Amino acid sequence: MYKGIITPIVTPFNNDKLQTINYEATKTLIDYLIDNGVNGIFPLGSNGEFHVLSHKEKINFVTEVVQYVNHRIPVFAGTGACSTSEAIELSCEMEKIGVDALSVINPYFIRLSNEELYNYYQEIASSVKLPIILYNIPQNTGNSIPVAVVKELAKIDNIVGIKDSSGDIDLIRQYQEIAKENEFQVLIGSDSKISFAYKLGVKAAIAGTSNLIPQTLVSLNSALNNKDYKKAEELQKSIEILRNTLKLGTVPSILKRSIELANISPVGLARKPVKKTTPEIDEQIRKMLKFYGL
């Protein structure tokens, strides 16, 4: 079972014309996160801008991450795609690189039947030996992974969990019921629902906000595990300061700019067409950073 805070890391870019990947900034960010106690590094998630990276860039980036992390903590890699063949190819490549687990988003743009969705995941799972975590983020894909499909997928040996970023508390409850009946787990992907999910028995969070404030997320995880709900409530509430600031721009522009202004790592801008932040927004980011002592 995966436990604790897993960081879906941003992909640092250089400020050149092609916005090439900045590997030195990646190393700086990884060290910051590990030093502050996160339990996993997850490249190629939503905050990692997987949707604007080429196949070659994904391979090169994860290779560098795996080598630099060097078994200090587990590395998860996002390998979902709109086509089954592309997802299988990327999953097989990641297995060769040496990641510890895969996170697989469901196909987006089109609506699939339950049978088609089940077949997509089943074929990916049968192509690798790695543990697979389903990734449900319906506000981005346009499709939620139905409970009935998850119930069947949970029976597949190497499909070990689901990251849910829906924010739907009823859905989280239903997924957690499946987890209780199988060797399967829910990993909460909505940072605002961490406390709620942990009280249901969830043990891990894949939290985008931990790119900037890992100390807060790690402390929240500890408080919840120790059933210190008063402290957990304070920490959970404090995350909202960052979450409200993130709404000022397109994902992950505000998060990346915050990491830079906090002098954590020069992660650069989000890839175009996402625009850079304005001086007015930067001022609001600085106020937010002051709240966290950054």
H-E string? EHEHEHEHEHHEHEHEHHHH
Counting DSSP H or I runs of 4 or more residues, the number of helices is: 12
Strand arrangement within the widest β-sheet reads 2-1-8-7-6-5-4-3
DSSP helix fraction:
40-55%
CATH superfamily: Aldolase class I
Given as residue ranges, the uncertain stretches (5+ residues, pLDDT < 50) are none
Give me the CATH architecture, please: Alpha-Beta Barrel
Distance between the termini: 33 Å
Structural class designation: alpha/beta
Summed over residues and divided by their number, the pLDDT gives a mean of: 97
Instruction: Give the domain tally.
Output: 1
Question: What integer value in Å does the Rg equal?
Answer: 18 Å
The CATH class label is: Alpha Beta
Number of distinct beta strands: 8
Largest sheet: 8 strands, parallel
Condensed summary:
The chain is α/β, with parallel strands linked by helices and 294 residues long. It has 12 helices and 8 strands. It has a single domain (4-228), classed as Aldolase class I (TIM Barrel, Alpha-Beta Barrel), CATH 3.20.20.70.
